[in-house]
Design goal:
Helix 6 runs parallel beside helix 10. The radius of gyration is 17 Å and the shape is globular. The longest helix has 16 residues. The chain has an eight-stranded mixed β-sheet with strand order 6-3-7-2-8-1-10-9. A two-stranded antiparallel sheet has the order 4-5. With 281 residues, the chain is α/β, with parallel strands linked by helices. The chain is built from ten helices and ten strands. Bound molecules: 3,4-dihydroxybenzoic acid and fe (iii) ion. The site of 3,4-dihydroxybenzoic acid has 12 residues, from helix 1.
Length: 281
């Protein structure tokens, strides 16, 4: 039987990917950012998952304003790194897990979630930067990845409540898959940031800290937050945080925080990162 053992959330800043790819991680600006992931790299090496369900948002790389799926699951054998304007990142192609992905698609759709099935999709910084932060620069990713893209780019994104319930449905799906697999769920994006307009550069440490606290201890409060609170408090791109609730909803209420990191500055974004373990592992 497959089981969800742990959850990881992290910001997915594209400039972090560029710093890795261009060998700048030891520069004074970037050093403290990467230092915050050293323990995480050790942890993931010790708790090696078989599969990651990686919840992220596509930033107009695979999709465009022509087609905007609210939730899209990648069921392909593999996913190439997207060209986001300066060539694809020099990272390995992502290997999928079609059998589990189709099972999750079937289970969640029959549970009344309108999941889009995607058989071909390039994956952008929302997915590849978190993999780089956790696994470094291997020749091949040491884990299979099921991409799960969420629309948070074009209004209206799904509510936090919908995301939470999708997380619960993913847990049910994984636990009904009859292969013995260690599955992790990741949620990427956030924390507070706004990339355009008069409030560009907005960071809200107080909001972010409370979000991190409540993600572990009081996720039900976060589930009730309306979109306008994210935008007001965490900036227009802070809405990416709803994806963290998919991760949290897929974990046990008693999941334990084993690591946390928060750092400003990094590009335009407050870097937030949490590792949660399910009990009994
Ligand atoms: C930045 C952060 C993001 O999450 C993103 O998708 C693009 C840019 C930034 O901080 O620059
Ligand atoms: Fe983003």
């Amino acid at each position: 039987m497959a089981r969800i053992t742990a959850g990881v959330t992290t910001s997915h800043i594209p400039a972090v990917g560029a710093a890795i790819d261009l060998g700048k991680t030891r520069e004074p600006y970037w050093q403290p950012v990467f230092a915050g992931y050293e323990l995480s790299k050790q942890w993931i090496a010790e708790h090696r998952p078989d599969v990651i369900v990686l919840v992220y948002n596509d930033h107009a790389s695979a999709f465009s304003l022509e087609i905007i799926p609210t939730f899209a699951i990648g069921c392909a054998e593999s996913f190439a790194p997207a060209d986001e304007g300066w060539g694809p990142r020099p990272v390995p192609t992502v290997e999928g897990h079609p059998e589990l992905a189709w099972h999750i698609a079937q289970s969640t759709i029959l549970d009344e979630f309108d999941m889009t099935i995607v058989n071909r999709m390039d994956v952008d910084h929302g997915l590849t930067v978190p993999l780089s932060l956790m696994f470094g620069q291997p020749a091949a990713w040491p884990v299979k990845v099921i991409p799960l893209a969420v629309n948070v780019v074009q209004y209206p994104p799904p509510t936090g409540h919908r995301c939470w319930n999708l997380g619960r449905a993913i847990r049910k799906a994984v636990e009904s898959f009859d292969q013995d697999l260690n599955v992790m769920i990741w949620g990427t994006g956030g924390m507070s940031h706004q990339l355009q307009g008069p409030r560009a550069g907005l960071i809200n440490r107080e909001f972010d800290t409370r979000f991190l606290d409540d993600l572990t201890k009081d996720p039900e409060r976060l589930v009730k937050l309306p979109h306008v609170d994210y935008v007001r408090e965490a900036g227009s791109e802070g809405i990416e945080l709803v994806m963290w609730l998919i991760m949290r909803g897929a974990l046990d209420p008693a999941a334990r925080e084993v690591y946390r990191f928060y750092h400003v500055p990094a590009s335009n974004t407050a870097v937030g990162h949490i590792i949660l373990e399910n009990p009994g592992r």
